[in-house]
Design brief:
The complex is a heterodimer. By secondary structure, chain A is α+β, with helices and mostly antiparallel strands. Chain A contains 17 helices and 23 strands. In chain A, the strands form six sheets. Chain A has a seven-stranded mixed beta sheet. In chain A, β5 and β6 form a beta hairpin. The longest helix of chain A is centred in the N-terminal third of the chain and has 22 residues. Chain A is globular, with a radius of gyration of 25 Å. By secondary structure, chain B is mainly alpha-helical. Chain B has 13 helices and no strands. The chains are: A alpha+beta, B mainly alpha.
């Protein structure tokens, strides 16, 4: 959080004192207004338009068939999930006003709010939830497919009750029920139609969310306006929300400076190269929040005989200076991590995993020991390091890694791959030696970590187990962790998994990704969820019409 | 001038030639695009693996489960029926996707073309009137600089100066969002959004036109008929406007034909920098998304545009230069 910068010139000591007191008072007032998480803070006002930047048009406004970030950024304003997540990934009521989980962890009973209407005036019922889970999100959602695949039956004993039965207990089930992965779609609009080509996917989407689509000019902008029948009283506070499409990162930064947009959110949209400059702007609120992730490099030890040797992998882990990479590669915004589960998931993180502190001497000794002496030119062997072109979490850090590995005699050839090429080359064809990049873990290791290390995840699909690491004990522990209903058993399993993997070292985790979000401080209440584009119904404009207590729902 | 009949035959011949040319462009581009690594379905998904049901359904829906030559044959058949295909990403007919971008591109290209031609010609004439004078050197230096500056960089510099430092002009998009402007206010708003992208797009072409116009004017100025005009005591303004300009314009007219293609390419960069919702940006984003049908569609439209413009240029030649004959027999 930042308070406006103050520049003082030629002031007396007394003036300095006054300025200091003023800053203190302003800061206290400011902190009171913008405290994060929980119910709406401060005294919200009604009115105003917030313009945010996004990088490209969403491919659809049907979040039941696609769950990419760009689609979710817009659709989470139009549609709702059964719950929403706060900044600690804890669930809060949304379409479901309450829920029960059976002691065996297999049955989830949700009770829906009574007053929820679709944008066309129809009432939301349990049949919509069942239809969405069985025919849309449950079938097509990429991020929650394991969870939805685990559903054995869905019952709707009455219009407001949904009973979901799972084949096996699945501990992160609640996490996939927010609007991003579990958006509830209208059965009366989609039933009996081709869900892929239904005209409501592009025009006139019917949701239950806080905003409705007014206009979508492709390549230019998407305008959403307040849903006056939103089930939360007095919300959303804003009159409208406009997503301006600006593909170029530098142009997004300029547009923020000129006031043509007032917010940039999400790791895909933020112009990282301009981070320092934007943080120094006056009258802004800056917040680093988002789904936890792991950035680092991954080894192709199955195909490359050099990398098959553990000493080589350990030597490379010692050779890199993580602290330097974070400071210089991420403009100080990323955080150091030392395990495949980042400390952003504090309950699952194991602080006692084997560590590989920076030591060029140790790295050199291990490489000698592995049988790779320096040859002419000082290099021992050559490897390719692939990364995604244009990804700010990859471009500069990969260059630093190249230089650091050269110091221990490893000649690195950088392969800058455009995204679609990378997906095919790395994840389908396994044509790489090292890959550097960010991978979201989300708030539960079962959702974002298991896909990278379980044997069943060696599928050739994008962002699955592309190192082809396989260890029966790790598989067993992941299964145990996801199926147990006892938290301590789950934690123990994840700790052991981290211990094993960080010993065998198929990957070297380096940093948790930076997730900067920025907004003009005339807007309050933004970025209160790990899915940082969700919950925009809580954003309010300081120049709007004041609302009295009781005129709006304060609870999130 | 050649007879009306021979001009009509010439136009017909050119149009007939355009058919095989378009076919070559289709086959070449189709093969090239599909040979490039990358998968359109993978491009659609986020950071998590797409479910098999989704991948299979999409592949079937877009015909990507067929072999390449079958896909090409199906595409050509569809084109012959006037169907440009279905966009993988936008999930709409390609023609719909492209047509909704045409007005924005024309709004940018037409003023840029006019600006670059009019100012290029004026600067070229000014420079040629007194070779190696201060005005000539200034125009030549400007032209050299304008020619060298990358459009992408120039666009950002213009934004830094006029949008951030001076705060005079908006940096993004085609209009101000969130404001319901009407009448003159709306017109002024559109105009203010247009200025920087037009400037960024046209400076390079203006520089080229100025250079060509200058050389052409100098060349013409040594022709016998100009010497004759001068010896007859004709006023210099009349010589320039009546004798030199029409003759010196011919190379510039040729360049305009090429300019349309180049402006189109340049608009890819300018539209990306300025967030302009035109065809250029559609092309750029379609490459990143591997949206083959839209990419093919934009290539087709560009090809047709260049072919047609060059045909128009050839016809304009007839009007400008009576010596030009398009009748093969003669």
């Amino acid at each position: 959080m930042k308070s406006p910068s103050t520049r003082s010139m030629g002031l007396s000591w007394g003036s300095y004192g006054l300025v200091a007191i003023a800053i203190l008072l302003t800061t206290v007032a400011f902190l009171k207004e913008v405290a994060w998480g929980g119910p709406v803070q401060g005294n919200p006002r009604r009115g105003g338009t917030l313009i945010l930047a996004i990088t490209t048009d969403p491919s659809t406004l049907n979040c039941g068939i696609e769950s990419s970030q760009i689609v979710a950024t817009v659709t989470t304003q139009i549609f709702s999930g059964l719950i929403h997540l706060d900044e600690n990934s804890d669930p809060h009521p949304e379409l479901a006003k309450s829920w029960d989980i059976s002691p065996d962890g297999r049955t989830y009973t949700f009770r829906l709010r009574e007053n929820v209407k679709w944008h066309d005036g129809e009432a939301l019922t349990s049949a919509d939830v069942k239809y969405s889970f069985e025919n849309l999100v449950g079938k097509y959602n990429a991020r929650g497919r394991e969870a939805y695949g685990n559903i054995s039956s869905i019952e709707t004993p009455d219009r407001q009750t949904v009973v979901v039965r799972l084949k096996n207990p699945y501990s992160p089930f609640m996490e996939i029920l927010s609007a991003h992965d579990g958006c509830i779609m209208p059965k009366h609009i989609y039933e009996g139609t081709d869900v892929m080509t239904n005209p409501h996917n592009l025009k006139n989407p019917i949701g239950t969310g806080p905003f409705k689509l007014k206009e979508w000019v492709r390549g230019s902008h998407i305008t959403l306006v307040r849903n006056e029948n939103y089930h939360k009283k007095g919300r959303p506070f804003l009159d409208s929300l406009i997503f301006r499409i600006i593909p170029n990162a530098a142009s997004r930064a300029i547009a923020f400076e000129t006031g043509e947009i007032q917010a940039i959110t999400g790791s895909q949209s933020f112009p990282f190269q301009q981070l320092d400059r934007l943080r120094k702007l006056p009258n802004i609120i800056f917040k680093d929040i988002g789904s936890p992730s792991v950035i680092g490099f991954h080894f192709n030890f199955k195909d490359n005989p050099i990398l098959a040797k553990r000493e080589v992998r350990v030597a490379m882990a010692h050779a890199i200076d993580k602290d330097f990479i974070v400071k210089r590669g991420f403009a100080g915004s990323g955080r150091l991590i030392d395990s495949i589960v980042p400390d952003g998931i504090p309950w699952a993180y194991n602080p006692k995993v084997p560590k590989y502190p920076h030591s060029v001497e140790k790295a050199n000794a291990l490489l000698e020991q592995a049988g790779y002496p320096r040859k002419g030119g000082g290099m021992r062997f050559s490897l390719r390091l692939a990364y995604e072109a244009g990804n700010a979490n990859s471009e500069r850090p990969s260059e630093i890694v190249r230089e650091q590995l050269r110091q221990v005699g490893i000649d690195i050839k950088l392969e800058r791959l455009e995204r679609s090429v990378m997906l095919t080359k790395i994840f389908q064809k396994y044509d790489f030696d090292l890959w550097w990049g960010p991978l979201t873990t989300r708030g539960h290791p079962a959702l974002g970590v298991a896909r990278l290390y379980t044997t069943s995840s060696i599928t050739g699909g994008a962002f699955t187990n592309f190192t082809r690491y396989s260890n029966p004990r790790v598989d067993q522990l992941f299964d145990l962790a996801v199926q147990t209903t006892k938290k301590e058993e789950m934690v123990k399993a994840y700790h052991e998994i981290q211990d094993i993997i960080m010993r065998e070292l198929p990957s070297v985790p380096v940093a948790d990704r930076m997730q900067p979000n920025i907004i003009r401080d005339e807007f309050r209440g933004a970025f209160t969820s790990t899915e940082n584009y969700e919950r925009m119904d809580e954003i309010w404009w300081t120049k709007g019409t004041p609302l009295k207590e009781g005129e709006f729902d304060r609870d999130s | 001038m050649s007879s009306d009949g021979s001009v009509k035959t010439y136009i017909l011949r050119r149009l007939i030639h355009a058919g095989p040319l378009l076919l070559c462009v289709i086959v070449f581009n189709f093969t090239l695009i599909h040979l490039a690594p990358g998968d359109p379905i993978e491009s659609l998904i986020g950071e998590f693996p797409a479910p098999d049901a989704y991948v299979e359904e999409m592949k079937r829906a877009f015909g990507l489960d067929q072999s390449l030559h079958v896909q090409l044959w199906l595409y050509i058949k569809a084109i012959l029926k006037g169907n440009l295909g279905f966009s993988f990403y936008y999930r709409e007919p390609v023609l719909t996707v492209i047509l909704e971008r045409v007005p924005a591109t024309l709004q940018l290209m037409v003023p840029a073309l006019l600006f670059s031609v009019v100012f290029g010609v004026v600067l070229g004439v000014l420079a040629a009137r007194k070779p190696y004078s201060l005005s000539d050197n200034s125009v030549s230096s400007f032209a050299l600089l304008g020619y060298c500056v990358p459009v992408f960089w120039l666009g950002q510099m213009l934004m830094l100066v006029f949008s951030i430092k001076l705060g005079w002009l908006p940096s993004q998009g085609i209009r101000t969002l969130g404001a319901e402007l009407q009448g003159f206010a709306a017109f002024g708003d559109r105009l203010s959004h247009l200025l920087l992208p037009v400037l960024a797009l046209s400076i390079r072409h203006m520089a080229i036109n100025a250079r060509i116009m200058r050389s052409s004017m100098l060349e013409v100025s040594y022709e016998d008929y100009i010497t004759l005009a001068r010896s007859k005591g004709l006023a210099e303004k009349k010589i320039v406007a009546g004798h030199m300009l029409p003759n010196a314009l011919l190379p510039v007219v040729t360049i305009i034909g090429l300019d349309v293609g180049f402006l189109f390419t340049g608009s890819v960069l300018v539209e990306t920098v300025f967030g302009w919702p035109g065809i250029g940006r559609l092309m750029y984003e379609s490459i990143l998304k591997r949206d083959y049908p839209v990419l093919m569609g934009t290539f087709m439209i560009t090809t047709v545009l260049v072919v047609v413009t060059n045909l128009i240029v050839d016809i304009v030649y007839l009007w400008l230069d009576p010596r030009v004959k398009y009748d093969r027999k003669k």
